[in-house]
Specification:
The structure holds 2 protein chains of 2 kinds. Chain A is mostly helical. Chain A contains 10 helices and no strands. By secondary structure, chain B is an alpha/beta fold. Chain B has an 8-stranded mixed beta sheet, with no helix packed on it. The chains are: A mainly alpha, B alpha/beta. Chains A and B meet through helix 3, helix 7, helix 8 and helix 9 of A and helix 1 of B.
Chain lengths: 264, 155
């Protein structure tokens, strides 16, 4: 009886220590990536190549999802607002919800599953096939050559993708409410412009997307670099990237929102 | 992939991103109406400003002529001092009437200016003398009930 109790307590302790150790390992890896980022800026071609795979190829999913999210927001917002006779405020509703929350968050979630998983799988497979070890043998630092450019490409492209998402959403909302339903175009834009503030709404949304970019790519490169060098290990790491970064995005979003919009 | 095509696509991506940010700040947000290029400052004392906020529009005949720059409470007169930036293209007579109005039933509050007939125009730093406070729903209901009660007592 006593033995079982001690064993289960030991189990909890072991898992806690393991978790903290893993967290420390991730932090040290993150600092190492930052420390070795010098190469990615001296040889910016490496980052540009990754920007193509991470940013440009994510454009299509971001544009299409943004358009549809905006169209749904327009429809739902109109449906509710017209009950109060204030359907001209639908522009405000669409723009504020996109710029403040949906743009950064949904774009980051899509980015995590579209680009984050690809980064993890690529680095993990490079590790499994011992390409990273081979680079080390040739005195090429794999963190500087492989990891850092991918990290910076993700950090750079995330704010742009979030902004494009928001713009496409506003356009989608405009398309549904003004073109199809027939809300007055003038009041759609003017209500939006008088209620969306540059500093409070747009700048804060931009800052949010920067944070998400750092979080998603840091998790993706760490999971890839840390994955067990087997087929199973790489698949597990890819799954963990998507799950962990989605949770990190939502948790971070709450913390950032609490700091940005408290008492406004 | 060729370096040149790669550069082209990434350049296009970054330009689209910057264009999106510009669109958000200029078209969706209100950065372009942030500061009126050429403006003069006018103050007004209100007994009650209701839900007026800084950067609320100042309108005359429905046209935005300025913005509320600052709202403060005065401990000497115990009322609110509202500072407005008014576009210097628009000049108003000295006896202009300023009232706090609401756009729609539940809309935002703004300051409405109704021009008077004075020959002298408002200058930088002047104070508008005639002001009308915001309607506060509780006070209106209270007054209505009070009137109703005193009517009933007449019988």
């Amino acid at each position: 009886m006593f033995k079982h109790l001690a064993a289960s307590i030991r189990g909890i302790g072991h898992r806690t220590i393991e978790g903290i150790w893993q967290l420390g390992h991730a932090t040290r890896f993150f600092l190492l990536v930052l420390l070795k980022s010098g190469t990615s800026f001296r040889r910016f071609g490496l980052v540009i190549r990754e920007l193509y795979y991470v940013g440009v190829l994510s454009l299509i999913i971001i544009v299409v999802s943004g358009l549809f999210v905006g169209m749904v927001l327009g429809l739902q917002g109109y449906e509710t607002l017209q009950k109060y006779g204030s359907e001209s405020a639908v522009g405000t509703l669409v723009a504020l919800s996109l710029v403040r929350e949906l743009g950064p968050v949904v774009a980051a979630l899509l980015f995590a599953s579209r680009a984050g998983s690809a980064i993890t799988a690529e680095i993990g497979l490079m590790k499994a096939t011992e390409q990273l070890a081979a680079m080390g043998m040739m005195a090429v630092d794999p963190v500087a050559r492989v990891v850092a450019p991918r990290f910076w490409a993700g950090v750079i492209s995330m704010p742009f993708l979030a902004a494009i998402f928001s713009v496409m959403g506003v356009f989608g909302g405009y398309l549904v409410t003004v073109t199809f339903i027939g809300v007055d175009a003038g009041s759609f834009w003017s209500q939006m412009q008088s209620n969306v503030d540059f500093r409070i709404d747009i700048l804060n949304g931009f800052i949010k997307s920067c944070f998400f970019g750092v979080a998603v790519t840091a998790i993706a490169v760490f999971e890839g670099y840390d994955s067990p060098p087997t087929a199973e290990g790489v698949s597990g790491a890819t799954t963990r990237t998507v799950v962990t970064s989605s949770l990190a995005i939502l948790g971070l979003d709450f913390i950032l929102t609490a700091f940005m919009f408290r008492g406004l | 992939m060729q370096r040149r095509t790669l550069d082209f696509w990434v350049g296009l991506f970054v330009m689209t991103g910057i264009a999106a940010l510009m669109f958000l700040s200029l078209k969706v947000g209100n950065l372009d109406t942030y500061g009126i290029a050429d403006s003069y400052v006018v103050k007004g004392n209100f007994d009650n400003i209701g839900g007026l906020k800084t950067r609320a529009p100042v309108k005359s005949s429905g046209v935005v002529v300025g913005r509320v720059a600052d709202i403060q409470f005065s401990t000497s007169t115990y009322d609110a001092i509202v500072t407005m930036n008014i576009d210097s293209r628009y000049q108003f007579p000295k006896d202009t009437f300023a009232s706090i109005l609401t756009a729609g039933l539940l809309g935002e509050q703004y300051i409405g200016l109704a021009a008077g007939g004075d020959e002298v125009m408002l200058k930088e730093g002047d104070t508008i003398m005639k002001t009308n406070s915001a309607m506060v729903l509780e006070e209106m209901i209270g007054r209505f009930l009070f009137d109703k009660a005193s009517e009933d007592n007449d019988f």
